[in-house]
Specification:
alpha/beta; two-stranded antiparallel sheet; single chain; 7-stranded mixed β-sheet; Rossmann fold; 8 helices
């Protein structure tokens, strides 16, 4: 992410993968044309919820695209500290970052949103149906889901692969390592499971955003990572 005075949050020598320096801008190029088209050309006047917001990159992009208000939520303190640092550095208003577990989302607490981002979360969940129900209850119009999936050339029905990731062998600051220290079960969907679940929770119109740019994670081109734009109407 860009900061004032020509600074950036990406430090190449500290990066684990070269992709970290381009992930945010490339995913915005990948997702935003379809998102803005579905919203009439901009996010002007829209309330946006960014689930598992990390350091707030997509939240801030939503604000740049005209959103009236953006709420980013996460459960990792240091991500929220980073997000609020970037918010202060840019002097941003109409954007808020809060520590809320997605399983605890409640309309009475956070209100309703026109657009919800669910990037890189679905395949980490123990209770994906519960979480998607929660998101549906606070989302009026559109949900964007970006997720890893498993592929099976012979399976044509919704399915989930259950995984029990072991605790990390060494100390790590990565999100997945933080979750794995707690001892969890993860359910990874196939594409049919994602589309059927979105329909089940009230989004009948689903578009697969096909990769049309260069520079994305190679999993987007192999079909191991997919992006869906789901709409109420």
């Amino acid at each position: 992410m860009e900061l004032p005075y020509g600074l950036r949050t990406h430090i190449p020598r500290l990066s684990r993968r070269q992709l970290e320096g381009t992930r945010l801008p490339n995913l915005v190029k990948h997702v935003w044309p379809s998102l803005l088209n579905a919203c009439g050309g901009s996010l002007h006047g829209q309330r946006v919820l960014d689930v598992a917001c990390n350091c707030g990159g997509f939240s801030i992009e939503a604000l740049k695209s005209g959103a009236e208000y953006v709420l980013g939520i996460d459960i990792v303190d240091r991500y929220l500290e980073q997000a609020n640092f970037i918010k202060r550095a840019h002097g941003l208003e109409r954007i808020e970052f809060r520590k809320i577990a997605v399983e605890d989302l409640d309309e009475a607490t956070i209100g309703q949103y026109d657009v919800t981002f669910c990037f890189g979360l679905l395949y980490h969940l123990e209770n994906p149906v519960l979480v998607m129900r929660k998101l549906s209850l606070v989302t009026r119009r559109i949900m964007v889901v970006d997720t890893s999936v498993f592929r099976s050339f012979f399976l044509r029905e919704p399915a989930w692969v259950m995984r029990f990731p072991p605790p990390p062998k060494t100390e790590s600051l990565s999100t997945t390592a933080l979750w794995r220290t707690k001892g969890i079960c993860q359910l990874r969907p196939n594409a049919h499971a994602v589309t059927n679940l979105l329909k089940f929770v009230g989004f009948p119109n689903i578009k697969w955003i096909k990769p049309s740019i260069k520079g994305l994670d190679k999993r987007y081109y192999s079909g191991m990572r997919l992006t869906f734009l789901a709409a109420r109407e």
